[in-house]
Design the sequence.
């Protein structure tokens, strides 16, 4: 069992569609990743540089190959992974970051 800390740049224009897919539970029914991918994306965090981060359980070589083909490559760029070893270690690194889905995070910048 491998747990990865995933870092990627969200395509802001696609986040609304991705959220709708998550809310409809369509991603959680996809095989073989079932709820692991959904859980990671629902709980994703946002770094100040605009990168999204989450922990993902995966057994593919290369990592997240099936998830990328089915979902991730439609909504994220520059995806990288770091082996976390034990479950939860990735999430521990993200506790102080805001949610990717926090309303203030996804609002367009106000005009100056």
Sequence:
């Amino acid at each position: 069992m491998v747990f990865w800390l995933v870092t990627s740049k969200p395509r802001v224009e696609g986040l609304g569609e991705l959220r709708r897919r998550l809310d409809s539970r369509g991603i959680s029914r996809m095989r073989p990743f079932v709820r692991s991918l959904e859980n990671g994306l629902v709980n994703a965090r946002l770094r100040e540089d605009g990168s999204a981060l989450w922990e993902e359980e995966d057994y593919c070589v290369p990592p997240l190959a099936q998830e990328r083909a089915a979902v991730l490559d439609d909504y994220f760029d520059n995806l990288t992974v770091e082996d976390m070893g034990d479950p939860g270690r990735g999430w521990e690194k993200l506790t102080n970051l805001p949610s990717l889905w926090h309303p203030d995070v996804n609002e367009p910048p106000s005009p100056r």
In short: The chain has five helices and four strands. Residues 7 and 53 are 5 Å apart (CA to CA). Residues 65-75 form the longest helix (11 residues).
